[in-house]
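Case 89 in the screening queue. Each case pairs one protein sequence with one candidate compound; here the compound is heme C. For every case the pipeline is the same: read the inputs, emit a complex structure as tokens, and attach any notable structural observations.

Predict complex for case 89.
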Amino acid sequence: MKKVVAAVALTLALAVSAMAADTVVYPAKNGNVTFNHKGHAAAVECKLCHGEGAPGKIALGKDKAHALCKGCHADKKAGPTKCGECHKK
Ligand code: HEC
Ligand code: HEC
Ligand code: HEC
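Case 89 output:
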């Protein structure tokens, strides 16, 4: 039974991974943020954002987004760290 459940979960995970959007727009009152998923997935490892295991939804929110996005950009000295470089009106 466990094996069947695992197989179904894996099939679902693979079906979802084929559907990851190229870009995700996060609405924000100080200017929407466009996240290029395709570009990031090519530039950095999946697990840096998704953790170990099958990648899926990430609940961000302001504080988590700033820690994750700005944190990596600062670490790698690549990508925007200034408000207006992510938040575009
Ligand atoms: C720089 C961070 C980052 C990297 C690297 C990254 N992702 Fe994502 N991924 C995200 C974010 C943020 C979302 C959008 C979260 C959401 O809407 O739930 C997302 C969404 C997804 C989703 C859609 C989840 C859903 O159900 O809507 C899948 C599948 C996914 N990523 C797979 C991958 C794979 C596979 C890789 C590596 C090839 C990867 N991601 C690399 C940050 C990243
Ligand atoms: C690396 C990109 C990035 C940078 C740089 C950045 N932000 Fe954000 N910010 C985001 C993302 C992504 C979200 C949306 C998170 C969500 O909705 O889940 C966000 C959300 C917010 C929100 C919440 C907006 C709302 O309508 O709820 C505020 C306010 C905000 N940021 C202010 C700032 C300020 C001020 C700065 C500069 C000090 C800044 N941000 C720099 C990516 C960034
Ligand atoms: C694990 C590292 C990492 C994380 C996490 C990450 N980025 Fe980036 N980001 C990069 C790198 C590296 C670049 C530079 C890529 C290049 O110049 O080709 C970049 C470039 C960018 C750019 C400018 C180029 C473009 O693709 O438009 C934006 C905007 C951006 N990131 C937004 C975000 C947002 C929003 C998040 C969080 C949802 C995020 N990034 C999370 C590594 C990361």
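Case 89 observations:
- The pocket of heme C (ligand 2) is lined by residues 26, 28-30, 33, 60-62, 65-66, 69-70, 73, 80-83, 85-87 (CB under 6 Å).
- The mean pLDDT is 87.
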